[in-house]
Amino acid sequence: xxxxxxxxxxxxxxxxxxxxxxxxxxxxxxxxxxxxxxxxxxxxxxxxxxxxxxxxxxxxxxxxxxxxxxxxxxxxxxxxxxxxxxxxxxxxxxxxxxxxxxxxxxxxxxxxxxxxxxxxxxxxxxxxxxxxxxxxxxxxxxxxxxxxxxxxxxxxxxxxxxxxxxxxxxxxxxxxxxxxxxxxxxxxxxxxxxxxxxxxxxxxxxxxxxxxxxxxxxxxxxxxxxxxxxxxxxxxxxxxxxxxxxxxxxxxxxxx
Length: 256
What we know:
Mean pLDDT: 95
Shape: globular
Number of strands: 8
Structural class: alpha/beta
Strand order of the largest sheet: 3-2-1-4-5-6
Number of helices: 11
Largest sheet: 6 strands, mixed
Strand content: 5-15%
């Protein structure tokens, strides 16, 4: 069976670089150590999962459709250190020497590239393992798409989602539409926090039903009054899975 290992490269690189910043004073030493740590991590992942195909997805699009919908999208994020941004080409070359090609787009965010790769392969009966600590990928979970936290050495699976959120993976987009996602500067519905969002989704199942049901409670009235906020947030958190990638699976085959 085809198994694609998808590295969320920026998630991996920024976490590794943050560690090295604490261990080395000079930026050059931090970058060299980050490269060594990335090569080591990639080697471990290849050894653990023995994929038939592999790709490292980088963020090449600082401004995409989400910024056009919501100009403050991710405005609160710490920008990547300039030295690290200038060094990404070196890191991509190091991965290529391990047989891992880089995928990035001038117009699409990395998360949407990952979603498109994983869902497209799943539709054709293949299996993907996404390596990331980004909980946003939990919305993609299904039997053919798994999420591995390299730093915690654990699966972020359906049981993890139920334990953390009390919901099924398919309900997460609607949950974040209600609560918002502070890390991406996405506002949800005012006054609806995690507990209320959970109760509403346990009662109504999804956002569509919640928005169209007769409003019997204060919470329902609040959500329906802020329908546009909820629908915008939903559009911002929902991963896009139909991007024209310009690459086929054959090009991502891993040659041991």
